[in-house]
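Sanity check. The docking grid for guanine depends on where the pocket ends up, so I'm generating a full predicted complex first rather than guessing from homology. Inputs follow.
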Amino acid sequence: MVTGTKLPHGTARFYRLRGTRIPKSAKPVASAGIPATEHTGRRGLCDTSNGPMSARIIDGKAVAQQIESEVSSAIATLGFRPGLVAVRVGNDPASEIYVRNKAKKARELGLEGTELVFPETMSEAELLAEVARLNHDDGIDGILVQLPLPKHIDSRKVIDAISPAKDVDGFHPISVGMLHLGRSTLAPCTPAGVIRLIEWTGEAIDGKHAVVIGRSDIVGKPMASLLLARNATVTICHSKTRDLAAVARQADILVAAIGRPILVTADFVKPGAIVIDVGMNRVGSEFAAQIAHDSDKARLLEKNGSVLLGDVDYARVRDLASWITPVPGGVGPMTIAMLMKNTVTAAERRRA
Ligand code: GUN
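Predicted complex below; grid placement will be based on this.
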């Protein structure tokens, strides 16, 4: 029986081995530069640094590189450079980094990547006019407007104005509707990346119980649609969910996308579950006591004065899960990689 308390190491190992269901015939498969582990015959790195046995780590950097090489090959076949424009309004520091990185990665992979930066004072009408201009520019295949926008601009109006054919974020209501119907569309990058990470483990999604914590338009809702389209039984949890830990504990696949540092502790996790952490929360010394058990994170906090935490208490959950994504280096690298993939797909569809 699974209880809310942390299992001793020996017990966890027993559950994990039962949970992984490795066929006797399975052969080690090396992929994306990740060596197959001899003892499991599966991809992934076993983290044994902090205990006798741990979940295998889903290496988001390696999977993202795999997608990036798919993108470069597809561009070589296309024979032209797909155009991606990343629009930023104002000086939100996180947005500055994201938008710059998106345009830079696009250029690295052979796309035409452009960063368009406008002042905080730009009016809604001016931004809508800019979006209309980009919609009509035949050299541009993908448009993304980085969110959040300044308060005086209605982000819904701006998203609605982007041509669905160029909506590489997958945020337009037509894209969302198509996704909800299980029809082919450009899917939001972060949840699409999560699907690729789960597929990379070699574990089936079909028939599994997937619990998504978080109901944002960017991650939680599209994540649920993508899992449902792959025949998972899907539960979406949110701030009003009663006994969140008990619901989460039913998950074979647990996706944490709430934006609350280390909310998902060991009592949220069924032994053998696949745990995907979408959270990226930068915290300071106020978290020192809460991460004292995690020597790696505690050291980083001590050294830098801040540390990046996921929504999952990685140091505790890794002793229970069969597979887990780290933060950083898990879901994060996938978002930009999937944006590049969506831009190439948009170019192929629009210019075919
Ligand atoms: N803000 C946070 N995540 C995203 C994203 O994936 N796309 C855009 N456009 N804005 C964001």
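Relevant for the grid: Confidence is low (pLDDT under 50) at residues 1-42.
Also worth noting: Residues 332-351 form the longest helix (20 residues).
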